[in-house]
Sequence to fold (272 residues):
Amino acid sequence: MFDYHIHTTYSPDSHTTMREAAVQALRAGLDEIAFTDHVEWMPGDGATGYFRPVAYLDELERLRRAYAGRLSLLAAMEMGSPHRFPAEAERLAAAHPWDYILGSAHWVPRSDGSLARSWHREGFDEGLEAAYAAYFREVVALAEGGTYDCLAHFDLVRRNSWVLFGLVMPLEPYWESIEAALRAVIERGKGLEINTSALRRGLPTPLPAPEILRRYRELGGEIVTVGSDAHRVADVGADIRTGMRYAAEAGFRYVARFRRRRPVEWLSTDHL
Fold:
């Protein structure tokens, strides 16, 4: 069992150390985890300039030696808006031996051209419909032009609107953008993350929504991973088995295991 979305003290919004996450991963029965700490370049984002890749990789290597034979630890990142900062994203991706990179759309454009944090009320100050439309257009741009191996929490706007307002909008009005993003992911040989954090926020299924995940499979999508998006120790490994069952229900017989930014092995969902 793998958890491919975990944040540590190398992200500004987590107080979990790498070692604490590793200990909890073993308690949760995991075999492999990825420390996907935030990398941002957007002015005004609290994560911008926070990530220290050399220190991160040094600590990761020490833990790999300590947990050899018990737990595999991946060198990973969650890049925010890499399509808006292509040179910076490519430079960082090429600078170190990363195993796995998530790409995320955390900021969305307003009608005046400014950008808003999608996880704050400011991201919805032009209305929920406009926020959903802007978010999915941003996901298309990310899918088509960003640096990533899998797209994280594809429909994060649903989780955000639920947490902020207790509302989730129907997806039909945004389906053209959703399908364009899925096609771009497939054409580029990339994948989707099944993000289980929505379950801890009161939504009935992980992200993406079932109809999105099924459509990705229908279009020929093959690469999926599962991640808890843990920012707290207790959430490491949360609902990973549920996420794998969710993949199986959408038609995926396997979830992917990554090394050096490529799927290298497939974990069967048949036994779930």
